[in-house]
Amino acid sequence: MPDSRPGRKPVPARAILEAVLWLLNTGAQWHMLPQCYPNYKTVHRRFQQWCEREVLRELLTQLANTLRDEGAIDERESFIDATFASAKGGGDDIGKTRRGKGVKILAIVDRHGLPLSVSTHAANHHEVTLVQLSFDFYMLEAKPQHLIGDRAYDSDGLDDDLKQDGVNMIAPHRSTRKLKTQDSRLKTAATCGATNVAGSSSDSLPGCSGSDGSWFVGNITPPTSWVLCSSHRLPCC
Length: 237
Known about the structure:
Blueprint: H1 13-26, H2 40-52, H3 55-69, E1 77-86, E2 95-97, E3 100-109, E4 115-122, H4 131-134, E5 146-148, H5 156-163, E6 168-170, H6 182-198
Parallel strand pairs: 1-5, 5-6
Antiparallel strand pairs: 1-3, 2-3, 3-4
């Protein structure tokens, strides 16, 4: 809520939100906020209040479910991937890896590239162990029918856990994996089909002529500040 101290007119929430969106889109530091917006200290303070009260999360959840009801979001076929963000200065939930200290940013998007979940985790955790945690930040009431990822998500244990929630995990098999059953071959074939529909990247799938899937179907352009590169990068903001 706006500051209620006497003698000072509260800055409208709309102006604060527009300033926050500018910062998220540009990736600029707080003190670089243009003068056409409220003072950056005011924006930062209000933003922290919203985060503590989960105001923004509630708004995004309501917006996402409204868009789903209107058909603008199609979560039946969603995509998951992670990227490493360096954090040399340390901080909370920072993990040490061969690439240095940092965090993993994990995102789930719908088939059009609209974000459904974005979360950060210590970088020393494998993606397989983070998938269920990412659903704690999922903005839709209904989970995806099919969740598509790269080889990092090839895990029988993860498949079984997600099936209990009605989610079918589709991922190409790791090169070191031994295909034991016909179901494994069928899974690889299904992955080829799904990822070819989704798009293409530089990683070829084993046993098929297609390519590993990227975030988006065809040439659909994602929203501003959510440009995901062909190397599976996550939001730039």
